[in-house]
Amino acid sequence: MSPSDATAHGGPAERAFIPLRIAVLTVSDTRTAGDDRSGDTLAARIEAAGHSVAARAIVPDDRARIAEVLRGWVADPGVDVAISTGGTGLTGRDVTVEAHRDVYEKEIDAFATVFAVVSMGKIGTSAVQSRACGGVAGGTYLFALPGSPGACRDAWDEILAAQLDYRHKPCNFVEIMPRLDEHMRRK
Questions:
Q1: Are 70 and 142 in contact (CB under 8 A)?
Q2: Are the C-beta atoms of residues 66 and 57 closer than 8 Å to each other?
Q3: pLDDT recorded at residue 13
Q4: What gap in Å lies between CA 99 and CA 69, rounded to an integer?
Q5: What is the pLDDT of residues 101-153, one digit of tens each?
């Protein structure tokens, strides 16, 4: 194997960190900027990891409004990733997952599975009540997390921190970002 092959296959060459621009959306009928603990948890972890918070918003549990904000961030070249918190449960007002799926071009099915595994270790069988999900649209990653600070911590610390870090091996979401919208380019 040549040195270039070793690098291409996660070999010894070190990669430089690539900071991402991450938007945070809190979905709640009751939260305000003053008491948005889940949004604050995500923002703090995003910045501590070396990324920047590109935008922050709070919207009510309204499918059309959630999708509108997500589509705006997908269209914004200053946003690489959008993470929402709240509205992933089973009640009638929980419509965040449906709004995300209205926007997705492709769903990242394994994100829900891995989040469920992480959650099982923390909250046992109560993990079945979450519908956390992830997807891609317009070259932007989108993730829907539950509305608790603990769930946001778990998703960031156990999944997103590594997958949104270009240095993570053997693979990560960052390294394929340039190819996410290749189907939209002319050949």
A1: yes
A2: no
A3: 64
A4: 10
A5: 999 999 999 999 999 999 999 999 999 999 999 999 999 999 999 999 999 99
